[in-house]
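Severity: low
Component: inverse-folding endpoint
Summary: output formatting inconsistent between runs
Steps to reproduce: submit the following structure tokens with default settings.
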């Protein structure tokens, strides 16, 4: 992704959807490779080393979730999953298995492109280890553990800060409840209700309107995302 267009591997067994994806991506200057099966996907990954993988979970030859694990073994390719409507469980499992994000079928081109840009940006940020996050009036300095809203310092409890830190490290990416419980509480079996309480408190401190948050967004049934 240096200078030239990012390349995307489309893994999708249904030709009409694959065509639609290809047309959309090419129209937005992405380079595109295609695979219709899990086996083709793994071979294309080795050959082309794409910048991102767009992965349909329902493939004929391999379980989509198992394929995420195989892709992870080949390299840190960002993975955006194409999932079916209402299948919250599969989305959560996909994210916990190593996917970066998901879009729900049927999806609009704008949403798909936004998720792709976010996943590519997230990967670049991780590589560049960016330590200061700013968005509108919010700034978070991870080195100095300093949070500001406008010119004012925001005082967070340790748990509130730890949640925000995870969201900043993975800005743009949806973090599952399980991810946050594991990283912040060091215990995935903690009741997600605790998380909700802390996120509510965090919003009261960093959002100008906590009832209509603009920074920490809820992904219903899945988790949270910082934008
Ligand atoms: Ca399919």
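Observed output (run 2 of 3):
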């Amino acid at each position: 992704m240096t200078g030239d267009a990012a390349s995307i591997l489309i893994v999708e067994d249904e030709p009409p959807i694959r065509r639609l994806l290809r047309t959309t991506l090419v129209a937005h200057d992405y380079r595109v490779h295609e695979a219709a099966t899990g086996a083709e996907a793994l071979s294309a990954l080795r050959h082309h080393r794409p910048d991102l993988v767009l992965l349909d979970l329902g493939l004929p030859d391999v379980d989509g979730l198992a394929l995420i694990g195989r892709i992870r073994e080949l390299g840190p390719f960002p993975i955006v999953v194409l999932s079916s409507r209402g299948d919250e469980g599969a989305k959560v499992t996909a994210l916990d298995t190593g996917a970066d994000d998901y879009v729900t079928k049927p999806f609009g081109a704008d949403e798909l492109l936004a998720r792709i840009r976010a996943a590519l940006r997230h990967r670049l940020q991780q590589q560049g280890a960016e330590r200061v996050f700013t968005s509108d009036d919010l700034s978070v300095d991870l080195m100095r553990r300093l949070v500001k809203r406008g010119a004012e310092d925001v005082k967070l409890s340790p748990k509130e800060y730890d949640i925000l830190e995870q969201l900043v490290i993975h800005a743009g990416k949806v973090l599952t409840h399980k991810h946050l419980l594991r990283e912040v509480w060091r215990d995935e079996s903690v009741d997600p209700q605790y998380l909700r309480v802390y996120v509510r408190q965090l919003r009261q401190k960093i959002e100008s309107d906590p009832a209509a948050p603009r920074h920490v967004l809820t992904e219903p049934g899945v988790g949270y995302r910082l934008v």
